[in-house]
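Here's my example:
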Amino acid sequence: MKNESAFWRNILVALETEPTGIRSIRGRSGHSHLVTALGIDEKRKRVVMISGEADARLASLAQADIQATLPSFNVVMARPIAINLSHVARLISNVLGTTTIGQRELEWLGQNQEEFEKQIKDIAAQTGELISHAMATPFRATALNMIVVIKEAIQQLSLIEVENNKTKSVSSSIPSFDIAKLQFLDPAKADRMLGVCSIPLYNFPEAHIERLKDHNDSDLARQILKDNDIFQYFFPAPDHLALGFVDRGIFKSNNLIANLKATPKAGHPFGPYEIINEPASIKELFQILNENKLIVEGEIGLEISPAGEKCRANVRFKPREGLISKLLRNFNMDVKVHLNLKELLDSWKTGH
């Protein structure tokens, strides 16, 4: 248990917070939310919470609920994902040559069990031991709520479609199981969409897991988080963030600058620039991106260029992408609240 605690402690210290022993926290609703680990940054007024919830939707709701009770702090939510059964589905599909498992495939497995096991081992070895990454390593190394992990596994298994193969000519046929949807599952997609930072433990190399578990070295932990594109969610690079805003539809330079300036106030201090040399000010950033042909002036304003698209492609499906969803959602919410309030006041003035 000491090593399990050290794993999350090292991550929280690398994120420049002071770890606490909190394991649940009550929100404005009165509901107590599960906490895997929690750190506090008093200087920047940040609370970094490693959620113990079973899915991204619950983690997002918990973030909003807890934030309502801590108005003077910014609650930053991350969620570990320990299992990815799409790895297993791809292995089985590669061996069988199909995504449908029915009576014929099961009969083949029964008759060729040794060959099946050998092919699984060979393919797993060639693809970086995917089965181990799918489920084993995170369980050994980190303090996870097994009930939550089981729930997540059940949710992933629910993607398997069951087809009834009974026909007039075959009266007692067993069902077929189609694993196509499971094969293409992205367990972190919902987290990115809802603005939660996913921590895909199933993708962590075993060496990274072991180092986070056994070494009290914040620099090492920080580098591991950077290598897995997690650190950049908490400390975003302004240049990548600017490209993300343009890619997501922020076309006017004044809106781009306003969003960038608001980011540290939302609990996400800037990290180092990653694409360009550090500019003198945020106001100059979009000009430098333009000069480097990463964004261009289009018919509707700023647009992402082919070179900018290439940069975005490297991070679009990484944990850091959730930050852009979070910031845009908060920005859009503020605009909608402002507009709705204005419409309400206008209606009162006109008597409607």
